[in-house]
Amino acid sequence: DAGVIQSPRHEVTEMGQEVTLRCKPISGHNSLFWYRQTMMRGLELLIYFNNNVPIDDSGMPEDRFSAKMPNASFSTLKIQPSEPRDSAVYFCASSMTSGNEQFFGPGTRLTVL
Amino acid sequence: GENVEQHPSTLSVQEGDSAVIKCTYSDSASNYFPWYKQELGKRPQLIIDIRSNVGEKKDQRIAVTLNKTAKHFSLHITETQPEDSAVYFCAASIGSNYKLTFGKGTLLTVNP
């Protein structure tokens, strides 16, 4: 198994542009999590899905952030418009409902200029 | 919601010494406590976890202890090696919803 796949690995964009981050969870996993990691705030859960349904989006910072999971093998996190304070590493993780271990993807390093 | 506090934020030890990282949690309903290791520029990876029906778990040089009454749990690394240098995160969750709340992390440096 290739593990959790994220793309792109690095993204540099200008303030005001739309950014879309992509994630493919491990096959057979039915829970998917989006995290943001910064030095100041640590590892924060933004949103998670169970069986493609958003369960808790209380960590989404504001309306500029949105996430979708159209099927069991794909999820997107979109930021529109992006701002410099959105610069961070964004991780996607997946797990099986029957277990708790979360497997993280390699992350997307986002820089907003 | 759940709040997880982790101490210390940085820890420096000599190779061969032991290292201990401590975490406290606020929600008494939490019943799953994993520890993740994150090397520089890499993803967090699970190294050990413990559930609330167990007081201690050991895996070679690492062990985790849980005190439910006091709502704290600790990671113990014995015979530390330079490759143990990384950021370690504790987390807590209520098993039914699988939502992990992470501590702020501990940067462990093992000096050769």
Structure description:
The complex is a heterodimer of chains A (about 110) and B (about 110). With about 110 residues, chain A is an all-beta fold. Chain A has strands spanning about 5, 10-15, 20-25, 30-40, 40-50, 55, 65-70, 75-80, 90-95, 105, 110. Chain A is globular and about 40 Å long. The N and C termini of chain A lie far apart (about 35 Å). Chain B has about 110 residues and is mainly β. In chain B, the strands form 2 sheets. In chain B, strands 2, 4, 5, 9, 10 and 11 form a 6-stranded mixed beta sheet that branches. Chain B has a 5-stranded antiparallel beta sheet with strand order 1-3-8-7-6, with no helix packed on it. The model of chain B has no long low-confidence stretch (mean pLDDT about 95). Chain B has strands spanning about 5, 10-15, 20-25, 30-40, 45-50, 55-60, 60-65, 70-75, 85-90, 100, 105-110.
Features:
heterodimer, A: 113 residues, mainly beta, four-stranded antiparallel beta sheet, 55% strand, B: 112 residues, six-stranded mixed beta sheet, five-stranded antiparallel beta sheet, 0% helix, globular
